[in-house]
């Protein structure tokens, strides 16, 4: 794509925030832009600005000294000599934000296609790459001679931001005391190219230098991009202070952010560039541990790229209610407080390391080297992901890295197969393939964007495999070197060394008054005088020079420039590669079969590409096949042809008679193998396709089970073993069971493979028990022999690894020093809960998990056991199945023993966690999930009161999300209109940011509704499918979330899930709309009340009329009273033309989202089908009668769960709301969280009642 042509170039921008009012949520400031005209025809200047109110626009000449201008400016910009300069002029403000309401007319059809077309048009109307913006400034004629001489202009805009709904977020916790005592803070967070939400700017890839000044209260801290210039300057009353930041590296406006608040400050002791970290009060110990790895990341990236960190410093800020997992700005990173952890937390430490490594990598590619347009976004995103992946490979190991690549590839292929193909560069797209526009980050689906990021990483890795890692790193070094040279080109060589001194003098001279207008006047009148006196020069810093075309190109990443640099370094052109994987969507789907030809001693391989399924492409390129033979592993590479491909692969092993005693493997090891089951004449042991994941693909290989057994036992590649584990799930036999059990017990195998094998082994045990045991002997279903055969698959291995030294079946104290054993033990427990004999979990499993939970002792463990206890509760939940159904009057005595045990344990641990909070409330989250499953299966009254409580404000974010998830699942099962209305009223439709609802919570609530829709598309008779819901979703998309484009796109996804691209069937036919059905040869016209007839056609009810909707062969023609006289021929031709368009665009494939779940979660879907069959039974049981006895359970929480109507508003059994908002982070960290005592030592039932 060509570089966007603009009529001017931005050289420098000053951003001054003069006041931040936390009580009223107001931000006041002004900004100045130094603009160099690039053409004589510049008559309008477009600036991006949304949500802000522009109070004043001032235009003036940037340089007031004519002689100095000619001396200091290159001949490129000189014209005829000027004799005078125009005076500063106040200009009228012309501001228009079309995104406030997408469809301004009353659109009665409510089709998603019409909305998306209008949405894409609205975004394009304010695209700065297309010379557009929300604010239009007309250049007065007196400035035209200045433009003709290519002289710079200075544009000043005063603005204010009042209660912003997006972009800039105020966090003001309720309570008494000063603002600092309450921990108030504010920060920025947006999608790409959305800095316009909080200050006027050129919101695109227009790099320039920056000066940022922020005035805050004296007990607060301001953090912004760039280097801090000297100490903050205090006002005369000592009530405010001003921070001065200068960013000498040119960056674009989307990478300018801000954070202000009462933060605890931690200077990094290892980094020498002034790196500093900030967090809310009370979290400093956690932050010190969390950021301790950042110096190592920067050092690794610098060594890898042979280039220094691009900015002068780095600052990290941890905030509450963050918009994303991380927000990367130039030298500034904003993280959520949820990722903070102590040294005692295991699981979150891994995830936090991944998030921070990606954020630091984004400083190199993303902030310093930015994308040219959204069509080039795949490059910085993919390169940052590639660097982060290499760091994770160094920290977590090669096996973990390969597993991450495999999981990303599986996610991408599943998305493309079930939804849409992913176009990394849609600039050449000619047909519509999605229900949303791909041309802007403001219109793209969030789910699509997640898959987009993963595919970009995979494509960059494919380039690494093609050229080699050293060559690709050389390409990245070339990009960074050119960018660094271009960034330093805007300063004269004799001023590079004096930049910091000059900046210090300039910042100390800036003494801003309180009012914005006074600030502007003082700056415009005295700036030149002050800078001349401080620098001794007239124009070097007063009028910063703009970047040349070459230098600006080096600072911006585009597909064209990336291809050119690769060609310079390698001498190869990657145009064909880009055409296949970047400008086209899809992945490769292969199926393989092979046969060994004894006479020719070759393997006849037949490959077939699936070219008809959704999201596939026709791949014609190299493919690698590995043949493991008796004499070793041999690689064969050939070109894959279109459709079917047949290849004869020669074998290097001739005979088994004279083979070596040990068989060499691909990694050089030599092992003994049991070859009793393979063909005596065949030297082939197993076959693998694309073992290095060099192609984005899904492959199905048809080979005998004994080859999978050998591959599982002896392949040294973790991906090969995982492939064998997955394939053996469909091969139930005693040999498969033995092979999986041996793998789990093998300490040398990668622990992730052993974890997957646990689930596969339990699946095989279920299959064998269903056919009568592990052998061919027939055994009665459900007998003890079947039960013993099922439970004996993992119990011996578990006790062998984790039993106490004193006795084999005695549970030992927790010791998580061996992290592989820690994860393996949890996987064993979770997988054991999936065992089934006659669709019922064996009672031995329930007793086993219950004993582990009751006798859990973490008193001598150096790590927290919160995730372990949460998995035990999840395992208890998984042991329940809908095969056991309770009917009639519900009482404690009528509950099965299994359900009563689960209720008892869940109630106890929910009570315990409400008093001693686990890290991030992980135990409470697991308990809420278990309670909802108990309700679905009929073991508890179906009552959402508990979920309402945890979804309400005042609790930690994770707990609110858990309550929302349970509530959304309740809505799906019970079709409860009241609960659905509560989610919309209290969360999604609340546009005012507060503790009750904030952007991240609103977005995740919509994502939950997407994952678990309240009803299925086309479902008839659902009481939730109402015109009111259509109106609510349409209002949200249209203007309800205008400031948050991510939320707007998510609501559009939900609208598509429920109604598709067609008109919702629940809507009545609007007046004046004619439905023309081409195939049926009839039409339906909805007349107004004054029409001549209102009688439905014979045999068609009013409900059927309301369900008429558009399809591929239908169209809607809106008639207007003033245009009813049309010629019949014109009308008929328009019908045919529009019907053809609908045939092409309306039936977009992939209407249902497919979640990527764990193996057991896929099996659990079978049980959920049974749950929905009993939906009417649940409805009758929503107001159950009370229990006959309350002594069976003895715990108040369990009693309250069984009697929701007798406990009032929840004060008796709901955990008290926390006064300290970050208590779940503190209580579960640093060993502060006391572990649950053994059941024999903890409080008695009477003591529990006192709680």
TrEMBL record:
**Which ranges are annotated Basic and acidic residues under compositional bias?**
1105-1119
Where composition is biased (Basic residues), the residues are: 1120-1129
Which molecular function terms from Gene Ontology are attached?
A: chromatin binding; metallopeptidase activity; RNA polymerase II general transcription initiation factor activity; transcription cis-regulatory region binding; translation initiation factor activity; zinc ion binding
Record keyword Ribonucleoprotein present: no
Where the record annotates domain Peptidase M1 membrane alanine aminopeptidase, the positions are 294-480
Which InterPro entries does the entry link to? Aminopeptidase_N-like_N_sf (IPR042097), Ig-like_TAF2 (IPR057345), Peptidase_M1_dom (IPR014782), Peptidase_M4/M1_CTD_sf (IPR027268), TAF2 (IPR037813), TPR_TAF2_C (IPR057991)
Query: Where located?
Result: Nucleus
Q: Where is the Transcription initiation factor TFIID subunit 2 TPR repeats domain?
A: 705-1083
Q: Which top-level group of life is the source organism from?
A: Eukaryota
CDD domains, alphabetized: M1_like_TAF2
For the region Disordered, give the residue spans: 1087-1131, 1179-1199, 1225-1251
Task: Print the keywords alphabetically.
Answer: Initiation factor, Nucleus, Protein biosynthesis, Transcription, Transcription regulation
Gene3D superfamilies per the record?
Answer: Neutral Protease Domain 2, tricorn interacting facor f3 domain
Recorded hits in Pfam families, A to Z, give: Peptidase_M1, TAF2_3rd, TPR_TAF2_C
One GO cellular component term, please give it.
transcription factor TFIID complex
Q: Does the keyword Ion transport apply?
A: no
Q: A biological process (GO) annotation for this entry?
A: transcription initiation at RNA polymerase II promoter
Q: What positions does the domain Transcription initiation factor TFIID subunit 2 Ig-like occupy? A: 585-704
Of which family is this protein a member?
A: Belongs to the TAF2 family.
Name of the protein this chain belongs to: Transcription initiation factor TFIID subunit 2
Species the sequence originates in: Fasciola gigantica (Giant liver fluke)
Q: What is the lineage of its organism?
A: Eukaryota, Metazoa, Spiralia, Lophotrochozoa, Platyhelminthes
């Amino acid at each position: 794509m060509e570089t966007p042509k603009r009529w001017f170039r931005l050289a420098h921008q000053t951003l001054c925030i003069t006041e931040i009012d936390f009580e009223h949520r107001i931000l006041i400031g002004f900004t100045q832009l130094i603009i160099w005209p690039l053409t004589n025809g510049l008559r309008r200047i477009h600036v991006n600005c949304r949500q802000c109110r522009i109070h004043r626009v001032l235009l003036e000449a940037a340089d007031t000294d004519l002689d100095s201008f000619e001396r200091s400016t290159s001949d490129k910009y000189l014209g005829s000599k000027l004799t005078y300069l125009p005076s500063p002029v106040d200009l009228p403000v012309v501001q228009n934000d079309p995104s406030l309401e997408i469809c301004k007319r009353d659109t009665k059809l409510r089709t998603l296609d019409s909305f998306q077309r209008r949405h894409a048009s609205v975004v394009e109307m304010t695209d700065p790459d297309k010379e557009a913006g929300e604010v239009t400034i007309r250049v007065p004629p007196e400035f035209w001679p200045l433009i003709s001489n290519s002289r710079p202009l200075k544009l000043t805009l005063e603005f204010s931001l009042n209660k912003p709904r997006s972009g800039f977020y105020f966090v003001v916790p309720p309570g008494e005391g000063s603002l600092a005592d309450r921990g108030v803070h504010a920060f920025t967070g947006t999608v790409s190219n959305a800095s316009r939400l909080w200050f006027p700017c050129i919101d695109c890839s227009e790099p320039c230098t920056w000066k940022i000044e922020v005035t805050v209260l004296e007990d607060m801290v301001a953090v912004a991009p760039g280097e801090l210039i000297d100490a903050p300057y205090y006002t005369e009353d000592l009530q405010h202070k001003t921070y001065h930041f200068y960013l000498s590296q040119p960056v674009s406006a989307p990478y300018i952010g801000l954070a202000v608040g009462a933060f605890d400050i931690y200077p990094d002791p290892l980094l020498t560039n002034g790196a500093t970290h900030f967090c809310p009060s009370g979290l400093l110990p956690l932050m010190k541990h969390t950021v301790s790895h950042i110096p190592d990341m920067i050092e690794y990236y610098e060594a890898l790229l042979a280039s220094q960190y691009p900015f002068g410093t780095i600052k990290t800020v941890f905030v509450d209610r963050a918009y994303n997992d991380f927000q990367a700005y130039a030298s500034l990173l904003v993280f959520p407080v949820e990722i903070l952890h102590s040294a005692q937390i295991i699981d979150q430490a891994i995830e936090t390391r991944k998030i921070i490594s990606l954020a630091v990598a984004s400083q190199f590619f993303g902030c310093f080297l930015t994308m040219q347009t959204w069509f080039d976004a795949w490059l910085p995103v993919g390169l940052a992901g590639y660097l982060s992946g290499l760091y994770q490979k160094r920290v977590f190991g090669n096996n973990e890295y390969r597993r991450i690549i495999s999981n990303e590839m599986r996610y991408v292929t599943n998305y493309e197969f079930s939804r849409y193909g992913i176009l990394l560069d849609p600039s050449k797209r000619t047909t519509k393939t999605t229900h949303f526009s791909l041309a802007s980050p403001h219109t793209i689906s969030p789910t699509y964007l997640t898959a987009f990021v993963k595919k970009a990483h995979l494509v960059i890795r494919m380039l690494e495999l093609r050229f080699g890692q050293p060559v690709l790193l050389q390409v990245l070094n070339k990009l960074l070197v050119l960018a660094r040279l271009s960034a330093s080109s805007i300063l004269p060589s004799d001023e590079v060394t004096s930049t910091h001194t000059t900046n210090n003098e300039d910042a100390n001279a800036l003494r801003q008054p309180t009012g914005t207008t006074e600030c502007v006047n003082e700056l415009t009148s005295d700036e030149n005088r002050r800078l001349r006196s401080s620098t001794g020069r007239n124009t070097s810093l007063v009028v910063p020079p703009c970047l040349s075309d070459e230098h600006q190109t080096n600072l911006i990443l585009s597909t064209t420039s990336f291809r050119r640099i690769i060609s310079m370094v390698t001498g190869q052109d990657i145009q064909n590669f880009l055409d296949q994987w970047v400008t086209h969507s899809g992945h490769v789907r292969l199926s393989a079969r092979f046969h060994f030809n004894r006479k020719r001693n070759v393997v006849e391989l037949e490959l077939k590409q699936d070219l008809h399924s959704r999201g596939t492409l026709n791949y014609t390129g190299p493919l690698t096949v590995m043949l493991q033979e008796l004499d070793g592993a041999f690689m064969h590479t050939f070109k894959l042809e279109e459709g079917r491909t047949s290849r004869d692969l020669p074998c290097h092993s001739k005979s088994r008679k004279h083979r070596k005693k040990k068989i060499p493997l691909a990694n050089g090891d030599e092992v003994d193998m049991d070859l009793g089951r393979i063909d005596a004449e065949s030297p082939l042991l197993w076959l693998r396709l694309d073992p290095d994941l060099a192609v984005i693909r899904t492959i199905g290989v048809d080979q005998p089970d004994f080859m999978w057994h050998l591959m599982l036992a002896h392949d040294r590649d973790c991906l090969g073993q995982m492939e064998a584990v997955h394939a053996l799930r469909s091969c139930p036999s005693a040999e498969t069971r033995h092979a999986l059990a041996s793998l789990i017990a093998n300490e040398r195998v990668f622990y992730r493979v052993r974890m997957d094998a646990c689930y596969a082994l339990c699946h095989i045990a279920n299959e064998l028990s269903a056919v009568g045991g592990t052998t061919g002997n027939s055994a009665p279903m459900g007998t003890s022999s079947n039960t013993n055969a099922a439970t004996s698959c993992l119990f011996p291995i578990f006790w062998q690894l984790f039993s106490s030294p004193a006795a084999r079946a005695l549970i030992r104290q927790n010791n998580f020093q061996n992290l592989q054993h820690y994860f393996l033990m949890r996987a064993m427990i979770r997988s054991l809960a999936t065992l089934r004999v006659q669709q019922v979990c064996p009672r031995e499993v329930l007793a086993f998990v219950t004993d582990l939970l009751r006798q859990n002792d973490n008193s001598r463990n150096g790590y927290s056991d919160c995730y372990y206890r949460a998995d035990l509760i999840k395992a208890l939940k998984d042991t329940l199945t809908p095969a056991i159904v309770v009917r009639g009057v519900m009482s404690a005595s009528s509950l099965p023993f299994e359900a009563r045990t689960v209720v008892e344990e869940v109630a106890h641990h929910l009570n315990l966690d409400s008093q001693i909070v686990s890290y991030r409330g992980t135990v409470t989250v697991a308990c809420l999930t278990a309670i909802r499953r108990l309700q679905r299966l009929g073991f508890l009254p179906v009552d959402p009161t508990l979920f309402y409580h945890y979804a309400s404000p005042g609790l930690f974010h994770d707990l609110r999300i858990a309550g929302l998830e349970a509530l959304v699942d309740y809505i799906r099962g019970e079709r409860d209109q009241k609960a659905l209305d509560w989610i919309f009223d209290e969360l999604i439709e609340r546009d005012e940011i507060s503790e009750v609802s904030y952007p991240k919570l609103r977005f995740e609530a919509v994502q939950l509704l997407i994952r678990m829709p309240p009803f299925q598309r086309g479902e008839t008779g659902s009481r939730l499918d109402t015109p009111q819901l259509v109106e609510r979703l349409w209002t949200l998309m249209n203007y309800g979330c205008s400031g948050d484009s991510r939320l707007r796109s998510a609501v559009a996804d939900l609208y598509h899930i429920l109604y598709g691209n067609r008109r919702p069937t629940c809507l009545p036919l609007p007046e004046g709309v004619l439905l023309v059905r081409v195939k049926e040869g009839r039409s339906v016209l909805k007349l107004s009340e004054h029409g001549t007839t209102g009688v439905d056609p014979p045999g068609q009810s009013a409900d059927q009329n309301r369900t008429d909707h558009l399809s591929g062969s239908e169209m809607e023609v809106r008639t207007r009273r003033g245009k009813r006289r049309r010629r019949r021929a014109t009308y008929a031709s328009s019908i045919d033309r529009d019907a053809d368009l609908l045939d092409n665009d309306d039936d977009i494939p992939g209407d249902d989202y497919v979640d990527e779940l764990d193996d057991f979660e896929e099996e659990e879907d079978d049980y959920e089908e049974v749950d929905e069959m009993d939906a009417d039974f649940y409805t009758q049981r929503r107001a159950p009668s009370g229990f006959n006895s309350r002594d069976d359970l003895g715990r108040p929480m369990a009693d309250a769960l069984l009697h929701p109507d007798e406990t009032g508003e929840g004060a008796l059994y709901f955990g008290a709301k926390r006064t300290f908002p970050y208590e779940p982070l503190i209580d579960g960290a640093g060993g502060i969280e006391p572990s649950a005592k053994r059941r024999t030592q903890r409080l008695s039932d009477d003591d529990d009642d006192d709680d």
